[in-house]
Amino acid sequence: MIRLMGIDPGLRFMGWGIVDVEGNRLRHVADGVLATQSGDDVPRRLCDLHEGLMRLIQQYGPAEAAVEETYVNRNGSSTLKLGYARGVALLVPALAGLSVHEYGAMAVKRAVVGTGAATKEQVSMMVRRLLPGAEVRRADASDALAIAICHAHHRASARHVAAGVRMA
């Protein structure tokens, strides 16, 4: 059994999700959102995200983390701030000794729904189906769980390739 953490970076809301993986079985452990105050300055918000992620890693003890890659949008300032949050999402697990993996939004959607063109609603519905009992209340947390599921699938495929297992 291995415990994985998925992180959906955001400066205002950073989604996180924890799943246990045993063979091809996934089990929901926990999920939520780290929220910062929009009135605080950016350095304070980044500190809050750092402290929150450190607490989660200490509390749940994941072995690996997966972070969604950022897409560039038209608003350069928003993209830059999202990049700051993404830096924290990559740095904190790395400092804690976890291996950190990155996946683009389309790869996550393909792994969870089967198509890179899936809507947020479709991703959320499949997360609930793949993780029975998960009562995900926020889209950011659902996205983080989807990232963890994506990593679990990619991790299993890589292990099969390394072991020389032929896939049908």
From TrEMBL:
Domain of life: Bacteria
Ligand binding (Mg(2+) 2): E68
Pfam families for this protein: RuvC (PF02075)
Reactions the enzyme catalyzes: Endonucleolytic cleavage at a junction such as a reciprocal single-stranded crossover between two homologous DNA duplexes (Holliday junction)
EC numbers for this chain: 3.1.21.10
Cofactor: binding details: Binds 2 Mg(2+) ion per subunit.
Binding site for Mg(2+) 1: D8, D140
Bilayer-spanning residue ranges: none
Broadest EC class assigned to this enzyme: hydrolase
Gene3D superfamilies from the UniProt entry: Ribonuclease H-like superfamily/Ribonuclease H
A Gene Ontology biological process term: SOS response
Compartments, record wording: Cytoplasm
Cofactor(s) needed by this chain: Mg(2+)
Keywords annotated in UniProt: Cytoplasm, DNA damage, DNA recombination, DNA repair, DNA-binding, Endonuclease, Hydrolase, Magnesium, Metal-binding, Nuclease
Residues of the active site: D8, E68, D140
GO cellular component labels: cytoplasm; Holliday junction resolvase complex
GO molecular function terms attached to this record: crossover junction DNA endonuclease activity; DNA binding; magnesium ion binding
Subunit text: Homodimer which binds Holliday junction (HJ) DNA. The HJ becomes 2-fold symmetrical on binding to RuvC with unstacked arms; it has a different conformation from HJ DNA in complex with RuvA. In the full resolvosome a probable DNA-RuvA(4)-RuvB(12)-RuvC(2) complex forms which resolves the HJ.
UniProt record similarity statement: Belongs to the RuvC family.
Role: The RuvA-RuvB-RuvC complex processes Holliday junction (HJ) DNA during genetic recombination and DNA repair. Endonuclease that resolves HJ intermediates. Cleaves cruciform DNA by making single-stranded nicks across the HJ at symmetrical positions within the homologous arms, yielding a 5'-phosphate and a 3'-hydroxyl group; requires a central core of homology in the junction. The consensus cleavage sequence is 5'-(A/T)TT(C/G)-3'. Cleavage occurs on the 3'-side of the TT dinucleotide at the point of strand exchange.
Protein name (record): Crossover junction endodeoxyribonuclease RuvC
Organism of origin: Parasaccharibacter apium
Gene: ruvC
